[in-house]
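Before the break, one more example. Copy the sequence into your notebook; we will annotate it together after we see the structure.
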Amino acid sequence: MKRSRLARVAAAMVAVGGMAMAVAPARADATLDKIKERGKIAIGVDEAKPPYGSLDPKTGAIGGFQVALAQDLANRLGVDLEIVQVIAPTRVQFLQSGKVDLLIANMQWTQERSEALSYAPTPYDKVGGGLLTAKGNGITTWADLKGKVACISQGSNFAKPLAETYGAVVKGLRTVPDSLLALKGGSCDASVHNFPTLYDTVANDPTGEWTAFHLPTQEQLLSAFSVVWTRKGQTDTRAFADAAVREWLQSGVLERLAQEARIPGDYIPSATRAARAGAFDQAPAEPGAS
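Here is what the structure looks like once it is written out:
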């Protein structure tokens, strides 16, 4: 995935979303006011791991799919972009405390999260958990995890179904790389994280370090909508982000970025076709949201 090509795609996003400033209502909420006053928006993105992110080894700069989306939001507001890398255990706190203004961090809708945060109701993806395990160890379905150790990220919504539905012994680790290292080291029997991330791990493996591992099932755990998250009650920020997501879909830019990043699955292409016909998926309604 070349950064220069992603930059061209991001530029196309600006052209499509030429109404930039007009998207935000005349009376902005506190978040939009502060963003405009300081001339910068801080957006939290996931770990710099394909297919959602990348890390330039020379500069240490984070790029990729999520950064391109974040850059488009900054361009629409006419402000600079500050990228903040977040991890599952702390991303909600980063948003609530004001360390970031928005999250585009491959974070799916759940009832619990919807009670703590607000979000753009139109999703930009739909993702569930994938099951990565060693070949030949007898784990071929989710049910085979009974009594086995499943490593996840701390704060992951996969913990409850793994323990209660499948009887796994859940082990929460700080980051996805920590979980993958534990899997390779034998301290867990499976690693459970977002399917595209694990798919990329084994499908694009130039070093061959994952040849002994696989995803034994294509069934995804708790498949749910990925949305842009805001602080609770930030109505105008929520509306601004939602208008952007709808344009990403209708313009086809979201689909193009997903292809560049090699994000597996057919949700984004099908959502793009539906958006062009005037139909949009919606995450479950936020309590009290207009």
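The first strand starts at residue 40 and ends at 45. The chain is about 40% helix and 20% strand. Try to locate both features in your own notes.
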